[in-house]
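hey so i finally got around to running both of the ones u sent me last week. sorry it took forever, my laptop kept dying halfway thru and i had to restart like 3 times lol. anyway pasting them below in the order u listed, first the sequence line then the structure token line for each. didnt double check formatting much so if smth looks off just lmk and ill redo it

first one:
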Amino acid sequence: MGDLLLVRHGETEWSRSGQHTSWTDLPLTPHGEEQAKSLLPLFAGRSCVLVLTSPLQRARRTAELAGLTGAVVDPDLHEWEYGAYEGVATVDIHRTRPDWYLWNDGVPPGPEGHPGESPADVGERADRVLAHAAKALDEGDVVIVAHSHFLRVLTARRLGLPASDGRLFRLDTATVSRLSTEHGRPVLAEWNAKP
């Protein structure tokens, strides 16, 4: 059985400033592009049977710069839908909701077409991605290039935890994490690794 390799995209303006970014399709900053290029040696010569990426340009560009060819766009890899908190930093939310915590509270609805998601909603998408990757994992390594909160939820679900336990896994930009198996059961083998 292969490993599940999780790649968080490189830096964007909003990831640098701490603003929640879901549907806003921001490009990588120049530093984010360099971060993505620095991942290239980690994947050079590594055989991956499947590469999945979020439809957003920051993830697709990270995959490209990291040398991950043949990436398949999976809409379920979209970042957590932040609703009314799109573009807003946690520090600003706490000015009016001091006890707000994404992992417990989710987000309020945003503009039309952006209703926001709860941890359970994101967990359902993560479960679909894991089901999509399952057959390929029987044949080798699978790489997923996506976003911080989504990948944290996916990790929790892969390890058999509730989606809200994604809160336990901090994830920085342009890092690689590895979920493996031990005695046939999913385990965390490496987390938040930088080249």
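and the second one:
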Amino acid sequence: MMTTTLRVSPTTAVIPVHAVWGAAAGLAGGIGFGIWMSVSRPVADTAMITMVAGLLGSTNAFLGWLIHLAIALFAGIGFGVLLGEFARQLVPAVVLGLVYGAAWWTVGALWIMPANMGMPVFEWNDVTSSSFGGHLVFGVLTGLAYFCIAQVMRGQTGSARR
């Protein structure tokens, strides 16, 4: 299998195109998930996005968005690198996105985030159940965005067909 790359500028190294497309797709999914977390208030009328800010000891929603989008960018790159080759058709992109979102929920929302905040890990409650829905939204939107980007870029350049 041949890897297609993108040269960002004459002085930078080449970047695998799946990583670039994944980054953009992850941000699209992250925006959808961030909106979900901004309106979801599973505990004491507290927006979930402020809980993300708690990773840095804050309750500031803007900081929560910055942290969340950084994580979404990272997760999107991972999606592109690991699954991008298989996400070039609509149904596989959506299914892989759902599975990827559920995997991130398991690792991030059930384990890493509660462990960093001194809360019980792998616990099902109002927060984790709402977070599960949000992670599925992230996955679907990331998969769909990746699929759309791949379709558009295939039409733009012959080098992006691989």
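quick thing i noticed on the 2nd:
The CA atoms of residues 82 and 89 lie 15 Å apart.
anyway thats it, ttyl
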